[in-house]
Amino acid sequence: MRHDTVNALKTLDPSVDPDFTRLARLAARVFAAPVGLLALLDDDRLWIYARHGVGIEEASAENSMVASTVMSQDLPHLVVSDAPGDVRFSTDALVMGDPGARFYAGAPVVVHGQKIGALCVLSPEPRYTVEEGELAELADLARLAGSLFELKDEARVRARMAADLIKEEWRHALTLEAGKVGSWVWDLRSGEIVSNDILRQMFGLPAANPLHIDELMATIDPGDVEAVNNALGSTFEDGGDYSVEFRVAATGRWLIGRGRVYQRDGAGKPLVMMGVNIDVTDARAAAEQTRLLLRELNHRVKNTLAMIQSLARQTMRQKPDPQMFIDSFSGRLRTLSEAHALLSERDWSGINLVELIHSQIGPYLLNPLEQLVMIGEDVQLPPDHALGLGLVLHELASNAVKYGALSSARGRVTIGWSLFGDPTSRIEFTWKESGGPPVGQAPEAGFGMRLIHRSLDKVLDSSVSLSFPADGVEARIAMPLV
After folding, report:
1. How many domains, the chain?
2. Fewest CB within a 10 Å sphere: which of 59, 141, 238, 370?
3. Same domain, residue pair 246 and 288
4. Which domain holds residue 342?
């Protein structure tokens, strides 16, 4: 215990604290002695914490008068008249070395109930008589040294706690700032609010002026004031946590307020409330976007399932053979799947025309660099337009593979398009095959032909026309872009 106490006191720097040096000097004056010491016993060493009339900083505790003063259980003080002649202390380091003591008088210093050292006086001359008053004053000074140690140690602990508290407050403030959280403390008696700068910025309030609850409430959107008041009233009456969402009138941004009554009087009346505000505008927008996407996805899934059912029925009528049905239906189903995948990646905002062409025609090309020519400025197609045009391109490409230009490596498909309107609101799209087998008369209108004509039924004011000149099939498609 003494060892721990002494080690704790070593953190107190005597070089910047003259109070203990004054005590050592006063003790020397009481006895008219040249040397006064405040020495702490640490295991087998004496640590000279404060000194007067001598320059030593430590000494051995072996056969030490100071150690004997500390270790004696009930000894109020120790007086040695002539140390060299005393067999107990003749080899004391303070006797044999500096300051060459012969006379010694010391009183124990007690800190937190532990004897940790002694306040003592030394003289190179022997002294055989000591007055009781001198010993009493030495004991008082030793007790004062113990009290000073306790007070200074307590002050050190408090200073450390204060520093830790300041660090914690800074960490808390930085955390709130990093999280863009506005914090506040509301004195309900005066109406005054103490807040951080982030909260003032949220409500569009000046940074320097004092803040009153009425000023803060005036910034809330009138349509949300009742909800805020109801939430506060419930917190005041029921003691539950305050939680409400509201808009700031000037900006329209959504904030969530959370808080709790921190202090009440004897009658239960709320006195102080603390809380935070968080800007949730972006989160609400994201949630709303998600809801819109889910509704859109639900709509698209229903339409797609209806389209798949129709494709299956019509394909089965035209291709009753199971293998032929699977081959034909799988290609059309893949077309829908690829278009849906592209739309999903873009949150159903649309697909670029060039990307749609590559996805639907690319797999059929024997020589991609030579067999496909595109002429036109890329444009984004709305979802319904992309799904319909994707089916048209699939049917044209699959027919070209079976009967037309894509049935040989020498064949070519040229796709061109032009934009019209101001602002651009319409596209006219052409498909032209060349280099393939000669085209005879127009084929019978099977399901593939009907599918080409009907794929854009959901796109109002659109049209599809096919022609069969001898050098290759041509298709012309016109549709709006909105």
Report:
1. 3
2. 238
3. no
4. 284-480
